[in-house]
Fold this sequence. Notes:
Blueprint: H1 8-11, E1 28-31, E2 36-41, E3 45-46, H2 54-57, E4 63-72, E5 77-83, H3 85-96, E6 110-115, E7 122-127, H4 136-142, H5 148-157
Antiparallel strand pairs: 1-4, 1-6, 2-3, 2-4, 4-5, 6-7
Bound molecules: zinc ion.
Zinc ion binds at residues 41, 47, 53, 55-56, 62.
Amino acid sequence: MKLSEFEESKYGGGNNGDFLRLEEGDNRVRIVSEFAPRVTHFKKGPCTENENCPFCNEGDKPSYKFLCHVIERKTKLFKIAEFGVTIIKQLKQLSLDPEYKFQITPEYDVNIKRVGKDKETTYTVVPARENSPLTEEEKKVIATLKHPMMIVEMLNKSKKSETPPSTTSQTQETEEINVDDIPF
Length: 184
Ligand SMILES: [Zn+2]
């Protein structure tokens, strides 16, 4: 959806349905929300992160992902990004760097460079050299977005079989999620 085509009345809570898919090469995005952690067991379900988790008790290790809203610059679409630890670590470094520091969201775009395939995949976060302000139109949409924590809750509530694979490879930073399965 192009921002110019965005109708708040039609979408109610903003466009919360599409997941960002990181393609080989450049993936320029603007992070526009805070992150919410999502802890899941591959093909099993969400992890409760305590002694009551049946999957942890089976000896299964959960995987950690972090959800946020982004604007995908290539398509100008708002999408939900699900980043793994390697990307989050790099964003954290930026947030602490004197030149790039930020509290919740950066005032610049970032390019997530994906190189290689499968287990050899690497992700490098490259910040834009200049800050760029969000447009009024973008700000309007951002104000309607669901908190990422709510999206995590909704994903966790969706049926186990619809939970996307989360540990097919440690290097896969985003997963394909069937948007129709998510009760937004
Ligand atoms: Zn668990």
